[in-house]
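Structure first, sequence second, as always.
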C-alpha cells in the first residue's frame, strides 16, 4: 500500500498521514523501514490507534524491548506491561538528548504514543545528531575529542533497588558489568557509580560523526553528576554553545491524540518543552529494530 508523507516544517521529520481511513497495521512495512533508515524519525498521524494497536504496530518493527531498569527518571507502567511506560514524571523542560546515554547498553530505537495531548505546550523536540555535530565549533569538537564525559552518582540502597529494579547486589553488579559502569559498594549497601563515554560517536554506517549523549539534560537537572573524565568541569560557555545550537536546529512536534513517533536513538536527539496541565499522557517503548540497521 502506498504511503503518503510530508515533511514536518523544514526538518528531517517525515509525517505519515492517513488518507484513505486505513489501519496503521496495513501500511507497507518495507517502505516504512526504508524511510526510517533515511530520515531517522517518522511521525504517524491520523490513524485509529490506542495502546493495544500501538503495541501491535511497534511489535512489527522491533525486538528486545527494555523495561527501563537503570533509567534516570520514574516511569509509570501502563496496563501491567513493563515495556509500555509513561514519560510524565514531571512537567519541566527536558533538553535534547539520546535516550539512556549514561550507560553502555542503550535502546537503538524509540517509540512514542500520544494517549492524550497536553492542553498547551509540552511539545516533543527532535534534531539530527549529525547536523548537531556539524554546527559545533572546532574548538569544542577538539575538546570533546580529547576528553570523555563522566557520569558519577551516589545512591542509597533504597534508591538503587528502585532505579535498577534489583533486590540484591549480585543482580546490580551484573547489570553494571554489562553496562561498563564502575561500581563501589559501602558497608550500608549504598553505592557509587561511574560511567565514562564520548560525547561524539561514529554513525552506525561509519560515514559520519554524531553528537548524541545525555550532556544537556544532565547539566540542566543534575549538574553535579557530570564532569569530564579527568574531573575537570565542562565550561559554561561550551554548554551555552550547545544549547544555542539545539535551539537553532530543533523541530517541535505538537502532539495530537493517537500520534505515533518512531526515532533512531543512535542518531536523533529528543527532548520536551515544559507544560503545566495534567492532560499530557505520552507512552514510550524502548527497543531494537527487527531489521538490518
Amino acid at each position: 500500500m502506498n504511503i503518503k508523507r510530508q515533511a514536518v516544517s523544514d526538518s528531517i521529520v517525515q509525517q505519515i498521514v492517513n488518507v484513505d481511513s486505513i489501519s496503521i497495521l496495513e501500511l507497507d512495512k518495507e517502505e516504512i523501514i526504508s524511510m526510517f533508515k533515511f530520515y531517522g524519525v517518522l511521525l504517524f498521524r491520523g490513524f485509529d490507534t490506542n495502546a493495544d494497536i500501538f503495541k501491535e504496530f511497534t511489535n512489527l518493527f522491533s525486538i528486545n524491548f527494555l523495561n527501563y531498569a537503570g533509567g534516570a527518571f520514574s516511569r509509570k507502567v501502563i496496563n501491567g506491561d513493563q515495556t509500555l511506560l509513561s514519560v510524565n514524571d514531571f512537567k519541566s523542560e527536558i533538553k535534547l538528548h539520546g535516550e539512556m546515554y549514561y550507560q553502555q547498553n542503550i535502546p537503538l530505537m524509540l517509540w512514542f504514543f500520544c494517549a492524550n495531548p497536553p492542553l498547551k505546550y509540552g511539545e516533543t523536540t527532535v534534531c539530527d545528531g549529525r547536523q548537531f555535530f556539524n554546527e559545533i565549533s572546532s574548538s569544542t569538537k577538539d575538546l570533546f575529542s580529547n576528553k570523555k564525559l563522566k557520569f558519577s552518582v551516589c545512591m542509597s540502597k533504597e534508591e538503587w533497588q528502585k532505579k535498577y529494579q534489583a533486590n540484591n547486589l549480585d543482580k546490580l553488579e551484573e547489570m553494571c558489568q554489562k553496562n561498563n559502569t564502575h561500581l563501589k559498594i559501602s558497608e550500608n549497601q549504598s553505592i557509587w557509580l561511574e560511567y565514562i563515554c564520548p560525547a561524539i560517536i561514529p554513525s552506525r554506517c561509519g560515514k559520519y560523526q554524531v553528537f548524541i549523549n545525555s550532556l544537556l539534560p544532565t547539566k540542566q537537572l543534575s549538574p553535579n553528576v557530570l564532569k569530564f573524565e579527568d574531573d575537570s568541569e565542562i565550561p559554561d560557555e561550551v554548554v551555552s554553545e550547545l544549547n544555542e545550537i539545539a535551539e537553532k536546529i530543533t523541530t517541535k512536534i505538537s502532539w495530537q491524540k493517537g500520534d505515533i513517533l518512531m526515532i533512531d536513538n543512535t542518531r536523533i536527539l529528543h527532548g520536551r518543552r515544559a507544560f503545566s496541565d495534567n492532560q499530557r499522557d505520552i507512552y514510550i517503548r524502548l527497543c531494537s529494530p527487527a531489521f538490518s540497521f
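Margin note: Helices lie at 29-39, 51-59, 129-135, 138-146, 157-163, 169-178, 215-221, 236-249.
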